[in-house]
Amino acid sequence: MSTLTDTSTAATSLLRFATAGSVDDGKSTLVGRLLHDSKSVLADQLEAVEHASRRRGAAAPDLALLTDGLRAEREQGITIDVAYRYFATPRRRFVLADTPGHVQYTRNMVTGASTAQAAVVLVDARNGVVEQTRRHAAVSALLRVPHVVLAVNKMDLVGYAESVFAPIAEEFAAYAGSLGVPEVTAIPVSALAGDNVVTPSAHMDWYGGPTVLEHLETVPVVTDPASEPARFPVQYVIRPQTAAHPDYRGYAGQLAAGVLRVGERVTVLPSGRTSTVAGIDALGTPVDVAWAPQSVTVRLADDLDVSRGDLIAPSASAPGTTRDVEATVCHVADRPLRVGDRVLLKHTTRTVKALVKAVPSRLALDDLSQHPDPGELAANDIGRVVLRTAEPLALDLYADSRRTGSFLLIDPADGTTLTAGMAGAAFTAAGAAEPAAGDEDWDF
Q1: Which of 25, 203, 256, 303 could link 122 by a cystine bridge, Cβ 3.0 to 4.6 Å?
Q2: How sure is the predictor about 428, in pLDDT bands with cuts at 50, 70 and 90?
Q3: Contact 232, 260 (CB under 8 A)
């Protein structure tokens, strides 16, 4: 049986990171350069890029084509969808989420950064920090990405001047700091020429910091599952009722956080019923302990009514349940989110009906001011919402748990994702206004 220490050590060799940047900041070229210079491109992939570049009249391979895989992306020269790339160096394995830069596709940055441990935000050295840069910084802060890299690109077009780089790095660091971003590392690069992406630049002797790859290889990502309370969302109930297993009842799912042990006293939420962990099965083998993000089957000592969407947590650190949710959200749908909208709220494996009771504020990205009572949130807006759910939810604060503090709002008519939500600190226990007339099916 594997030990917790072994798994924790192995986990440090993997880094999930996202890239973001405004249109034409050279993000896809940076990613292509990172893959090419780290020898992470297969020969046939490079040959295809060289062939496509020649057809377009380019004298050298266009490394942006390594990530812009959609036909529309190649034709327009922009990134539209999130492109995931997997590569490795002798020091670390990487999962890269290359996210779009156009404001229309900011919603896809939310997707790519939601599980990222680091974000690389590009700016064009000629343009400096622009509104979309601030939006990407705000999304990174909203999603609690612990490490942010500012890659000041196209330094070759400004003569590799430190006097251009320094004020951009200072402005971004001040803005990100006001958002609560814990760490910003600024690196001057030229993705086209390869300066400071994988190899140090010969043109910027005034810069003594790491290259982009060196930083990504060494940024600390050690997480101790034991530092967080265990959270086990039930995904499936296993009840074979066969001759070999007549009384077997197990609850399968992925441990979202923390460590769960056999013999531990647990509470099933939202019912509040308690029991003891009688057994844990991993890949059909009994184990004594499980830790995030393992997928296991948990067996309880008592026959409780447990189904998909329930949450099993240690009784000593179980979250509270609520039907009144205040959260910060990023609205990702084209149709606005308005007060009075009926939505579905998906939290881990649980989906419940909900009403949008209020939209207290919308964030202005230029000065970080809160515009009160906007009435609605449009696509790519970041704001606060107040929701009332039909059934109790076992929500953590997003600041405490990215997995069990996050949720999605879904259009009940067609299943479209509307909004990505991060539960805030303010919850109300009672006193919600009554639903408006005509909400009979949503009367809660």
Answers
A1: 25
A2: very low
A3: yes
Q: How far apart, in whole angstroms, are the C-alpha atoms of residue 114 and residue 402?
A: 8
Task: Quote the longest CA-to-CA distance of the chain.
Answer: 77
As a whole number, the mean pLDDT across the chain is 84
CA 377 to chain centre: 21
By the 8 A CB rule, do 123 and 168 touch?
yes
List, as one string, the DSSP characters of 246-270.
Answer: TT--EEEEE--BSEEETT-EEEEET
Other residues' Cβ atoms within 10 Å of the Cβ of residue 244: 6
Return the pLDDT at 149. 96
The torsion region of residue 5 among left (phi > 0), alpha (psi -120 to 50) and beta comes to: alpha
- Rounded CA separation 412/345 (Å): 9
Q: What is the DSSP letter of 70?
A: S
With beta carbons less than 8 A apart as the criterion, state whether 352 and 410 touch.
Answer: no
Pairing outcome for strands 147-153 and 118-124? parallel
- Among 82, 90, 150, smallest CA distance to 122 is for 150
Two structure tokens written together for 400: 């405490």
Smallest CA-to-CA distance from 358 within 326, 391, 397 is with 326
Distance CA(281)–CA(310), nearest Å, equals 19
Give phi and psi for 69, each to the nearest 5: -90, -25
Per-residue burial over 166-194, b if 16 or more Cβ lie within 10 Å, else e, is: eebbebbbebbeebebeebbbbbbbbbbb
Q: Give CA separation, 14 vs 7, 18, 96, 141, 216, in Å.
A: 12, 13, 11, 22, 10
Query: What's the mean pLDDT in 259-285?
Result: 96
How high is the pLDDT of residue 51?
A: 63
Backbone angles phi, psi at 57, to 5 degrees: 85, 15
pLDDT digits (tens, 9 = 90+) for 15-28: 999 998 887 888 88
Average of per-residue pLDDT across 233-257: 89
DSSP 8-state code for residue 195 = B
d(CA 125, CA 189): 9
Residues 32, 27: Cα–Cα separation, whole Å = 9
Cα 213 from Cα 196, distance rounded (Å): 8
DSSP state of 14: E
